[in-house]
Amino acid sequence: MSQAQRDITLRFLAEPHDVNFGGKVHGGAVMKWIDLAAYACSAGWSGRYCVTAYAGGIRFIAPIHVGSLVEVEAKVIYTGKSSMHIALEVSACDPKSLNRRLTTHCIVIMVAVDQNGQPERVPQWLPETDIDKRQHATAIKLMEIRKRIGEEMQIFVED
């Protein structure tokens, strides 16, 4: 078996069909790119088909212009039994200058599933560097926060 891949970077040019009515890349396109990178990262780590279970904390910091070179960086920061927490950063720049700026960041939780859609075990990831340990600890804190948010959101899904 080949070694699991913890991180991945997708690179491409923002195209005219990605633009909203304001002339900038629309948030939906950015969210699609985030989901694609989260999938590639989680599949690379787990060696399994993965589905998105949660996307949160998304922050749109700066606009992306058509023709920009876009980079979506994704890395595993926590693993559960079948889930993987993926930290994502989107940056963009003029391809002539390569002066990248952060445009968006978030956390996505992916779950490895079998052919019947049932969760499957994933390899455990253990932090080694100081930044990895801080991000891992933050992922654990965010789980508790999401639990509380989920409880508050119940009012919107009850009959």
Structure write-up:
The protein has helices at residues 27-46, 130-153; strands at residues 7-13, 49-60, 69-79, 83-93, 101-113. The chain has two helices and five strands. The mean pLDDT is 95. The radius of gyration is 17 Å and the shape is globular. The protein has a five-stranded antiparallel sheet with strand order 1-3-4-5-2. It is of the alpha+beta class.
Low-confidence stretches: none
Order of helices and strands: EHEEEEH
Structural class designation:
alpha+beta
Mean pLDDT: 95
Across the major sheet, the strand order is: 1-3-4-5-2
Described by strand count, sense and barrel closure, the largest sheet is: 5 strands, antiparallel
Total beta-strand segments: 5
Count the DSSP helices.
2
Distance between the termini: 48 Å
* Fraction of residues in helix: 25-40%
- Whole-number radius of gyration? 17 Å
Overall 3D shape? globular
Strand content: 25-35%
In short:
The chain is an alpha+beta fold and 159 residues long. Helices cover 28% and strands 34% of the residues. It is built from two helices and five strands, in the order E-H-E-E-E-E-H.
What's the arrangement of secondary structure elements?
Layout: E1 7-13, H1 27-46, E2 49-60, E3 69-79, E4 83-93, E5 101-113, H2 130-153
Antiparallel strand pairs: 1-3, 2-5, 3-4, 4-5
